[in-house]
Amino acid sequence: MIVDAHLHLDETIDGTAQGAAKELDTQLTNAGISRAIVLHLESQPWSAEEVAKAIAPYKSLKGFINVHPFNKDAKDKLKAGIDELGYIGLKLHPRLQEFKIDHEKTLELVRFAGELNIPVLFDAFPDGTHIMQGFSPVKYAELAKLSPETRIIWAHMGGHYVLDFMMLAKRLPNVYMDCSYSLLYYRKSSIIKDMVYAMRSMKFDRIFYGSDYPDRSIMETKNSSITIFKELGLNEDELTKIMSTNAINFFKWTDL
Ligand SMILES: [Zn+2]
């Protein structure tokens, strides 16, 4: 029972959200993955409504809606996304959406997500652009500390800042992480050892597997990630937590 807790729809299948969702469901089935979190992106050519409609027929697919925190209707959009479109979380991307993580509007929307009892996933991958925009683990932590009622997922484990993110997550019980993209991006570097060190240090709790498809393929990412985890000494129980049960328990899925 594998959960891929971080991916997106592929724009290149046939250009439609329906086509992308169908292809994604097929690829998940082929890879033996039971469920995936589809992160809607405002930068993609489909509206939140279109993405919701496309993924709705598939038991394997659950969605997070992407809303800009500075949008004057941000709260209404988020609430409608949850209540009417079936989304189960909020996706925020400070680099792509070009907003400041320490802005009061960001805090307002993150706190509102807590009131709605839905998690917020933040992109936390420090590429050169993001670093030049002022990427700072402390800003992520401050936001999480100011929103203790909101469960926050730091995607990509903070990339090469993984040890900072780990030390901060230990002080913030409302924080979770996913290892998508980073694990394979840093595959030939020392960072993956730090990532597994961080997982171990957190007792393999609060961390989810993700592929970040379509940037990475579903099957190959799953196989490579499991290989890396085994090479770095994870036992079966530890592997199961990362690949499956941490996410299932987090989302309280009883139908898997
Ligand atoms: Zn992503």
Can you offer a commentary on this structure?
This protein has 256 residues and is α/β, with parallel strands linked by helices. It has one domain (2-251): Alpha-Beta Barrel (TIM Barrel), CATH 3.20.20. Helices cover 44% and strands 14% of the residues. The protein is globular. The relative contact order is 0.14.
Total number of beta strands: 8
Instruction: Report the CATH architecture.
Output: Alpha-Beta Barrel
Strand pairing plus helix content: what structural class? alpha/beta
Q: Report on the biggest sheet.
A: 8 strands, parallel
Secondary structure tally, helices: 11
Count of separate structural domains: 1
First-last Cα distance: 8 Å
Shape: globular
Mean pLDDT: 97
Q: Going by CATH, what is the homologous superfamily? A: Metal-dependent hydrolases
Output the radius of gyration: 17 Å
CATH class equals Alpha Beta
**Helical residues, percent:** 40-55%
Tell me the β content: 5-15%
Q: Give unreliable regions as ranges.
A: none
Determine the CATH topology. Answer: TIM Barrel
Task: Report the bound ligands by name, code or SMILES.
Answer: zinc ion
Secondary-structure element pattern, one letter each: EHEHEHEHEHHEHEHHEHH
If strands are numbered along the chain, what order do they take across the biggest sheet?
A: 1-2-3-4-5-6-7-8
Write the layout of secondary structure elements.
Elements: E1 2-7, H1 17-31, E2 33-39, H2 48-55, E3 61-66, H3 74-83, E4 89-92, H4 104-115, E5 120-123, H5 128-132, H6 137-146, E6 152-155, H7 162-169, E7 175-178, H8 182-185, H9 191-201, E8 207-208, H10 218-231, H11 236-251
Helix pairs in contact: 1-2, 7-9
The protein binds zinc ion.
